[in-house]
Amino acid sequence: MSNFPFHRLQTDLAALIARTPAGQRLLSEPELAKELGVSRATLREAMRSFETQGLIRRRQGSGTFVVGKSPALDSGLEVLESLETMAKRLGFEVSVTKLNVEMVLADEDLAAALNVPVGTRLTRVQRVVNTDSRPVAYLVDILPENSMHVEDLPANFHGSVLDFLQARGDSLASSRANVSAIGATAEVAKALEIQRGDVLLHFYSQLFDGEGKVVDYSLSYFIPGYFHFHIVRRVGS
Predict the structure, then answer these.
(1) Which of 64, 108, 170, 182 has the fewest CB atoms nearer than 10 Å to its CB?
(2) Phi/psi of residue 162, each to 5°?
(3) CATH number for 27
(4) 125 and 214 in a common domain
């Protein structure tokens, strides 16, 4: 029974969002909290679940907006493929913005992830993937410079490092991915136009060549409401 007021708040918010036209801004947090009779902290916590569903979008300094519900990108994870390839296969239109390609030096964490000495020159590719003009994913690939140099990427690069490596004919054998739910850091929140601490689906992966060498270390951040990932497994004996 102790959660009843919170559940009622979520019901009230769901009704408010449902009757608000897509694109329209909701009342400010102080005004909405006062109208619903709750604290701003409680309101903010209740609104997180609607944001992860893709029903609302909070923009720093602008307010909270209702967005039309978009179909989620639903895919299995048994076969490694780029987000762009996955979207094309499923009939989704995506675009890439905020592309940044630069040389960085390996710190201890990156050196360990890529199995290279500290100070090794690396190529880092950062970008945001959008659907329906909304940022839905923030992707970062980091590769040893001898695997991919900043100048290797063509002028018409569309954002997929995996597709670029495959098209170039690189020998790619396997990938190991770790999946978790995390709160958005300030950097990721800014890129995705969400609030710091909002829950994201996070993958960090290593891509191996045929000799077992790590050729790419990637960090991927997804807004949950826009992605449904699943794994099909056979039953063990």
Answers:
(1) 108
(2) -60, -50
(3) 1.10.10.10
(4) yes
The answer to whether position 236 is within a domain reads: no
Average pLDDT over residues 87-110: 92
Please count the other Cβ atoms lying within 10 Å of the Cβ belonging to residue 111: 16
Same domain? For 58 and 81 the reply is no
Query: Mean pLDDT throughout 124-134?
Result: 90
In a domain, 237, yes or no: no
Which pLDDT does position 100 carry in this prediction?
A: 94
132 or 82: which leads in pLDDT: 82
- Flag whether pLDDT at 51 surpasses 80: no
Q: Could you tell me the two tokens for 215?
A: 């050729």
Q: pTM for the whole thing? A: 0.80
For residue 104, pLDDT beyond 50: yes
For residue 153, the enclosing domain spans 73-230
